[in-house]
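[09:14] KT: can someone run the structure on this one? pasting the chain below
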Amino acid sequence: MGRAKAMQLKEDDLFMTLPEFENFNSKTEAIMAWLRKILSEGLKNSKICENDKLPLKSVFANKFKVSSATIQNAFDGLKDEGLLFAKKRSGMFVSNPFSKTEVMRYTSKRDLIVEKIKDSICDFEIGCKVESARSFAKKFEVSLSTVNSALKFLCMQSFLENRDGKLYVAKKISKTENIKAQTIVEKIANEIEKEILINSKSGDKLPSNHVLAKKFNVSIKTINDAVKILSDKKIIMTRRGQYGTIILKASEKREDMIFAPAKDAAFYYYEKVQHSIKKMIAQNFEIGSKLPSIREMSQEFGLNANTIRKALKNLAEDGYVIFERGRYGGTIVTNIPDMSAQSFKWLAVNPQYVAAYN
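[09:31] RB: done, structure tokens below
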């Protein structure tokens, strides 16, 4: 019976046979065919699982006595077939293109440039010379290394041919459909947005970036970049500390909102806490009573101690509490708030409109 948990693949799991270089036009093709067979058979008999991690490129390069670039080209080819996927700074992992739980395949910058180059030369005849890598890099506003990687891939796929350092069209490229390609960050941003629309409501807290990275099987940096996209679209609002990331837009319509927009109201949150403390004093305390400590109220409200401290400072200025030092000191109630009428003093109103009511 096969295992269900992903793991690090060992050399013994892979190198029982070696690539047959003599039967292929290039070492890259030979390594691709060899690894394709091993991964396909391993996935079929469950000796290899999705998300299993491959050994380092250097292990393959030393074993086959080829360059790391050759191994990378083979990995890139199998990524395009859906048998492998990469995690930034983590390595190369096994994917199952036939599984219902297939890991999402993402479009790299190289893949995007490959499609752009193909679109730009689709009208060229076989034998026509194409632009230089530097020219493509300037046109598409990407690094020269990204373009070189894309051109190398097109050569490997026999779309281009290298003659004395110049590239020529080797195969007629048909005009492809204009399918919008997305980077990994854009796709993750879309997936998070879908989750928000389906499962969340405005004001909910988004799971931490670490939780999201684990859920979508990507790096923390990818999640950070995706969250920034959603923040720019004003779907979520990121806040420092324990407040986390708050959802601003979700599926339901909140027409009964009397507060300022969440992004603006966040800066006045201590005033809402101030209102809650006043209510607590009116219902549970008498003049001369001692309020719970800032730490206790911080835990009770689930808020940062600085927010509680600022709210209490405002209450002291309004004459509801005083602060006493010493062993028996603390926050002492000096006046009971009148909560009989609904108060809107703590609403996050833009100060420029206050003058209209004076």
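[09:33] KT: thanks! The longest strand covers residues 84-87.
[09:34] RB: yep, looked fine to me
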